[in-house]
Amino acid sequence: MVEISDPGDPRLADYRDLRDVELRKSLEAEHGLFLAEGEKVVRRSVEAGYAPRSFLMAPRWLDGLGDLLATTDAPCYVLSEALIEQVTGFHVHRGALASLHRRPLASVEEVLAGARSVLVLEDLVDHTNVGAIFRSGAALGFDAVLLAPRCADPLYRRSIKVGMGAVFTTPWTRLPDWYDALPDLARRGFTTVALTLSADSVPIEEAVDGVDRLALVLGSEGHGLSSRWEASSERRAIIPMRAGIDSLNVAAATAVACYVATRR
Amino acid sequence: MVEISDPGDPRLADYRDLRDVELRKSLEAEHGLFLAEGEKVVRRSVEAGYAPRSFLMAPRWLDGLGDLLATTDAPCYVLSEALIEQVTGFHVHRGALASLHRRPLASVEEVLAGARSVLVLEDLVDHTNVGAIFRSGAALGFDAVLLAPRCADPLYRRSIKVGMGAVFTTPWTRLPDWYDALPDLARRGFTTVALTLSADSVPIEEAVDGVDRLALVLGSEGHGLSSRWEASSERRAIIPMRAGIDSLNVAAATAVACYVATRR
């Protein structure tokens, strides 16, 4: 427990300018760290076995996390909420943060071992959507998540928070290869079903009917799936919608698709 | 078309400090206005019949909305993107804004006329969730939305944006009375089904089975439904989830429930 009263203290470097997405991306990559925010998510990160580098807390959050802090040698920096706001650049509503070490990415083999239903995310750029999809996938019976090389980071603070820590308990990794990712999944015994508005798309219930190992493929918020992934998936599916409505949000569509797929 | 180069120009009063939620709430209430953001949403607001007070645009958005601007006498203030940021307090990615007149709220009778499936939101406080729920409801076959007195404003800029303007085309209103809202819906011939984790909750498919006029009732993000609404709804339902997972995000749960309910 280390009380700090100088917001410029170099020990707080992991926690600076949390709203500056570009700065955070390079800082977190260079140091191999990620941040967990909020009592519940901080707890889940440590309980999932991620090694903490340090904690940053306002005094009133110490009690709730006392048992967790007792399990680790990592320093806990204690600052007033006003100082936390100076360091991080915003008001941390649930004034508990942790900086944790990232782990080496798992191999695709490891992530797929034993999985029957996996989500495959192409170039989703919005951390909120990535987090929401991890959460829905975990709740609705999906076993693993694969990310295309340009998909947003699921260990980014915002992804973790929206996902309520589902990224800690769901096996996931990056796909090393974008171009052949879906044929590769097919070779591994997965039926690839892409959620996309194409001419031969069928309702999702029909697309997953009778499928054993399922890879549900999702494209970016704006442009949808790449033509390569659309063409190289074995089946294309839609969520049936009311006439005249253009689309569902990708996180909402994923929740519906996961619900339907889990009942196949 | 009015070019403005002074960010302090009083004609820009409708567009000030868009990130200051409390200030915006009182300003919008006092003046009976709301803001639409982004080319698509601005277009939908006017096409839905809301009367514009004014528009605020960066020069490059004029072309895309030229046809719409030609239909109205409301002034269009043209500012550089840097000046727009000074006025609004943030970088407007899609540099088109409109300020529009609110309309008197419809009566509950009007909103329910002809509706077979309605969403009833209790105290959702997050504008993003309210917007996402309007969008999913519209896409997945719901006809109307009723809001408890303390539910967040669906005409708040963020709600409209996330909902992609679904609030303009979906009949909605405020419930005048919180306490008897659900018994009142039952008297009007709706079966009230609350999405809530209670001891007698049944899977959503079972809860909506055979229901003709359906009122799907949703509680707040944090605390869920009030005990009054939980007890005064006729049926209680859950989205079946994997063991050990506590909950879905309310917007994801709503999307699943709407999908299932529309297939009843």
Automatic annotation (TrEMBL), chains A, B:
| This protein's UniProt keywords | Methyltransferase, Transferase
**SUPFAM superfamilies, sorted:** alpha/beta knot, L30e-like
Entry's Gene Ontology molecular function annotations? RNA binding; RNA methyltransferase activity
Q: What is this protein called?
A: RNA methyltransferase
Query: InterPro entries given for it?
Result: Alpha/beta_knot_MTases (IPR029028), Ribosomal_eL30-like_sf (IPR029064), rRNA_Methyltransferase (IPR051259), SpoU_MeTrfase (IPR001537), tRNA_m1G_MTases_N (IPR029026)
Biological process annotations from GO: methylation; RNA processing
Q: Where is the tRNA/rRNA methyltransferase SpoU type domain?
A: 118-259
Coiled-coil ranges (or none): none
